[in-house]
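Researcher: Please translate sequence to structure tokens.
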Amino acid sequence: MFSVGELVVYPAQGVGKVEKIEEQDVGGITTRLYIVRILSNNVTLMVPVSNAENVGLRSVSDKKQGMSILAYLEDRSDFTGYSGQNWNRRYREYSDKLKSKDLRDVAYVLKELFLISKDKELSFGERRLLEQAMGLISMELSYALSVDQSQAKSKVEELFSDVLSEQNQPEEKKEA
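Model: Translation complete:
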């Protein structure tokens, strides 16, 4: 059970703060709810206490887990790329992973999209997923590693500096 003031993660939304725990009448049944304010966009969520685990509400990663995610992002041995998959199937798979309660699934999406972008231009939808994954990862890492979100994002971008530098080169240099 979470307590008031505790930082939590809601899948696909990011880090939030439990503002209060209250009882409300929902369909004639009294239900205990976590009132969670998502820190990145001030959205308020009402999560039934009895269903919190099922929807993936969890504590923010600690420093050890944060470092583990950075190591996972750096390891490219599990990169599958886009062999045989069309962008629509990848998009659905990645969208599902962004809703996962496991931060490693979100990191997987981020890593895959960064590495795919090394070989081909991402579709508009894939770029949006990349931005969403980066936002979710950098926000949680900022709390896990006790740094600003911009610093967490920079740490992640450093891991993919080879990809990012290739993307910023003029076309004729890429072909050479």
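Researcher: Any highlights?
Model: The CA atoms of residues 16 and 42 lie 9 Å apart.
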